[in-house]
Amino acid sequence: EQDPLVIFTPSGKRGHVPRGTTVLDAARRLGVDLDSVCGGRGICSKCQVAPGIGHFSKHGLTVSEDALSPINAVEQRYDEKRGLKPGRRLGCQAQILSDVVLDIPPESQLHRQVVRKAAEARAVAMDPATRLFLVDVAAPDMHAPTGDLERLNAALAAQWGLPEARASLPVLARLQEVLRAGHWQVTVALHQPHTGGEAEILDLWPGFFEGPLYGLAIDLGSTTIAAHLTDLATGAVVASSGVMNPQIRFGEDLMSRVSYAMMNPGGAGEMTTAVHGALDELARAITQEAGIDPRTMVEAVLVCNPVMHHLALGIDPVELGQAPFALATSGAVEITAGALGIRSINPSGRAYVLPLIAGHVGADAAAVALSEAPEKSEDLVLIVDVGTNAEIILGDRTRVLACSSPTGPAFEGAQISSGQRAAPGAIERVRIDPATKEPRFRVIGCDLWSDEEGFEAALGKGGVTGICGSGIIEAVAEMRMAGLLDSAGLIGTAEQTGSARCVPEGRTQAYVLHDGSAAGGPVITVTQGDIRAIQLAKSALYAGARLLMDRMGVTRVDRVVLAGAFGAHISPLHAMVLGMIPDVPLDHVRSAGNAAGTGARIALCSRAARRLIEDNVRRIEKVETAVEPKFQEHFVAANALPHASDPFPELE
Ligand code: FES
User: Fold this and answer.
1) Of the listed ranges 249-253, 256-260, 358-362, 527-531, the one predicted with least confidence
2) Which of 23, 34, 46, 74 to mutate to test the pocket of ligand 1 (most atoms within 8 A of CB)?
């Protein structure tokens, strides 16, 4: 009699296995992805399958009701205690008796796919560095004396095929008690580095511990720190939280923090201590909010720019403040979470810091590259992450280039006469009627446009307080489109423009966007100085992009991705009217939202992704804008709105 045929769906993998083989063993033999934490003891239920019964014409199979062995005592016990869904069987208990079709539901797939981006539906296979394993350890034997850790390691090798793992002293100190409390059965949180280095037992629980384990994906920005608590079994974000970066008190932007470190003995250390405190506070708040045991949070991934990177690692950033901008290391860093000051996590918790691309192009840009995968793109994609420094990546399947460009803080509303951070009261959207030159706008925290009925009431007491980054970009672009500005960026007089809103200010003109003086509020104008600041910032951004295009030998790109929180708020039309980004069809401009955070989460969930980004970063060609003579040339030409010479046919 021939061995029964087993077909697994959705993979379609099939093969003959000896009668009586368990479904879990059959899956392993045929290379089918079926999860198990308890190693087939009927405890974890991760191995659930749904057997099909009936005629499967596609496979030419008729499956009888008794293709699997009847429910045994172990399965029965599980069903009584925790309940099996109808139609489900425990793969580690059910034996294959005759031909069968077995469906593996998504939650039983070990390397289940996690959608990386809603927009792109690219998927990442779950492969976290730390996973749970249940083992039965041999009791000690007077006649064959070995240590408990050695017997635990022998059990991990025999039952899971795992390499020898080390244990830190605190874990070792608990080992004996836990093993005995679990009657020699123990669940181990095992960290297996993506580099293939030595595994480490991070924690142990007596008997079966179901988890889940969690990781923290941290995007450490110079202004804010955001964190996403992620379930390491499913990749789902369980909670998100953010705090201000307390280093702000040492300097608003990166360079002022580097100078603080240069001017003050111990200054770098102060900033390290401050950011460690904030990281720990964030971890504590997020575990509390999610109501999880900090012990189950076993990993953290950190992405940040080079200066934040060095300060977080306790490295003095002075070298980053001067040419040739040497990094202490550009490689990925694996450390304990404690080394980043994160204490509200498992005491053995690990941290992974993504590699840096170059002196000014950080691990945050690497995370964006991981999330957006330009190296897989068929068409040429330009990715810009706009902040005080714009980080720019250009590439496709054949080649990827990166640079950074000093845009300054104008895009964030700083250095703008009425500028402010994006907060309630800030003008964030602006439209100017080209015929009447009259503006209307929207304010953060208010659902109505300024010309809609009830706007004043909806605005509340705070009123209009200023203009934020996206607001000033739209204001300048709208002024250009309404003919209030010429291509050199000069604001016309009331006479020239026919608008009484153009008023003299010193020897130049300003445009009055909002006059709140009657109600005791501010007068919000766009001054010639504001236009100048935006021109400088956008020229730097455009010149950086053009430099990469030169290197690539192209004059056009196929699409543009705007990354970062700010990118999420920029309107592609207005960005192009200003000439911030090169000319492409408007529907080829996409906002990627917080791509750096997404990249951090991918690195948290996948060891393969860590290897991939380390490899890709080595291959990215770095372009240093500061030493490229062409940069200055591009910068000057980009001062005009949208540009002195480059064509913008899509704007016609
Ligand atoms: Fe854990 Fe089957 S493998 S219940």
Assistant:
1) 249-253
2) 46
Q: Beta partners for 63?
A: 54
User: Residue 615: is its pLDDT beyond 70?
Assistant: yes
Give the domain-ending residue among 152, 181, 206.
206
- Written as six digits, the tokens of 611 are 């290897």
Structure tokens at 177: 């008690």
The overall pTM is greater than 0.90: no
- The Cα angle at residue 272 between residues 229 and 277, in degrees rounded to 5: 45
Q: Is the CB of 90 under 6 A from ligand 1?
A: yes
Residues 471-477 have a mean pLDDT of 94
Residue 356 binned pLDDT confidence (cut-offs 50, 70, 90): very high
For the Cβ of 94 lying below 6 angstroms from any atom of ligand 1, the answer is no
Burial environment of residue 351 by CB neighbours within 10 A (0 to 12, 13 to 18, 19 or more): buried
**Boundary-marking domain end, from 206, 238, 257:** 206
> Is there a single domain that holds both residue 321 and residue 402?
no
> Residue 545 has which token pair?
């992009």
Residue 507 shares a structural domain with residue 623: no
Nearest atom in ligand 1 to the alpha carbon of residue 46 is 1
What is the residue-wise DSSP string for 390-458? EEEEEEETTEEEEEEE---GGGGTTTSTTB--SSTTEEEEEEE-TTT--EEEEETT--SBTTSTTHHHH
What does the pLDDT read at residue 112?
Answer: 65
Provide, for the chain, the percentages of residues in helix, strand and coil under a 3-state DSSP scheme, each rounded to the nearest 5.
35, 25, 40
- Ligand 1 pocket test target in 34, 35, 47, 75 with most atoms within 8 Å of CB: 47
Q: Crossing angle for the helix pair 363-372 and 595-605, nearest 10 degrees?
A: 80
554 pLDDT more than 50: yes
DSSP state of 491: B
Identify whether residues 78 and 157 lie together within a single domain: no
Q: Can you read off the two tokens belonging to residue 48?
A: 């659930």
Nearest CA, atom 1, ligand 1: 44
Do 226 and 263 reside in the same domain of the chain? yes
Is 186 within 8 Å of 152 (Cβ atoms)?
yes
Question: Quick one: pLDDT at residue 410?
Answer: 82
Question: Long-range contact list for 252-258, CB < 8 A, 24+ apart?
Answer: 252/409, 252/414, 253/222, 253/388, 253/409, 254/222, 254/305, 254/307, 254/308, 254/388, 254/389, 255/321, 257/222, 257/307, 257/311, 257/317, 258/307, 258/317, 258/318, 258/320, 258/321
| Ligand 1 atom with the shortest distance to the CA of 36 | 3
Would you place residue 417 in the very low, low, confident or very high pLDDT band (cuts 50, 70, 90)?
Answer: very high
The pLDDT score that the predictor gives to residue 123 is: 65
- Which pLDDT score, from 0 to 100, does residue 649 have? 85
* Domain membership of residue 155 as a residue range: 129-206
518 secondary structure, DSSP code: G
- Ranking 80-84, 115-119, 231-235, 508-512 by mean pLDDT, the lowest is 115-119
Q: Would the CB of 42 count as within 6 Å of ligand 1?
A: yes
The SS3 of residue 647 is: coil
Same domain, yes or no: 452 and 580: no
In this predicted model, what pLDDT tens digit does every residue of 97-111 receive, in sequence order?
A: 999 999 998 888 877
Q: In this predicted model, what pLDDT tens digit does every residue of 289-325 receive, in sequence order?
A: 999 999 999 999 999 999 999 999 999 999 998 888 8
